[in-house]
């Protein structure tokens, strides 16, 4: 398996968090989710969780899965969003660096095999999760627009996607 694929290919790719089969995760022994915030749970410029996101959190918790929000964004943004969901969070996580993933795993007291990482970016969320050996699920960004740094990452991400498609690694439906 190529090194680029190893680090940048998500284990799964879905349209949104709502397409993730929570039952299946729980049945396969998943006990914790490390999720990104911006453009994964809501648009990067939306302050609060939507009703659908609140219900998703309830559903995940009812399935016996703990959630930690791990975001590269600042304390104010991540803190106020997470508090309204009563969920643990790590801000300024510096993904794809591994420290925040380790921190979150310790916080949840879980083994790597019990954790799934969810995010909308290949270069931060997927790369960060894959290099720790965690199962990664990539979602289509909630909003098409991004902040400045993300724009650059998206350019690289598009090239990686192209490469994976050409090599026949990508098996998911695209639209
Ligand atoms: Mg994001």
Automatic annotation (TrEMBL):
List the GO molecular function terms.
Answer: phosphatidylglycerophosphatase activity
Q: Which UniProt keywords apply?
A: Hydrolase, Magnesium
Give the source's domain of life in one word. Bacteria
Which species is this UniProt entry from?
A: Staphylococcus edaphicus
Record's protein name:
YqeG family HAD IIIA-type phosphatase
Pfam families recorded: PGP_phosphatase
InterPro entries, sorted: HAD-like_hydrolase (IPR051400), HAD-like_sf (IPR036412), HAD-SF_hydro_IIIA (IPR006549), HAD_sf (IPR023214), PGP_Pase (IPR027706), PGPP1/Gep4 (IPR010021)
Q: What is the lineage of its organism?
A: Bacteria, Bacillati, Bacillota, Bacilli, Bacillales
């Amino acid at each position: 398996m190529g090194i680029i694929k190893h680090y940048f290919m998500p284990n799964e790719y879905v349209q949104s968090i709502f397409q993730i089969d929570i039952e299946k995760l729980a049945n396969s022994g998943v006990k914790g989710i490390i999720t990104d915030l911006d453009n994964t749970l809501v648009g990067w410029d939306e302050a609060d969780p939507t009703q659908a996101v609140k219900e998703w959190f309830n559903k995940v918790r009812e399935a016996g899965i703990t959630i930690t929000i791990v975001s590269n964004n600042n304390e104010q943004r991540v803190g106020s969003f997470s508090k309204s969901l009563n969920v643990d969070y790590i801000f300024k996580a510096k993904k794809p660096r591994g420290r925040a993933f380790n921190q979150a795993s310790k916080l949840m007291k879980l083994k790597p095999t019990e954790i799934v990482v969810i995010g909308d970016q290949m270069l931060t969320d997927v790369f960060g999760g894959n290099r720790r050996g965690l199962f990664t699920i990539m979602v289509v960004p909630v909003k098409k627009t991004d902040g400045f740094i993300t724009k650059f990452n998206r350019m690289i991400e598009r090239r990686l996607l192209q490469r994976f498609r050409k090599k026949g690694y990508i098996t998911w439906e695209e639209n």
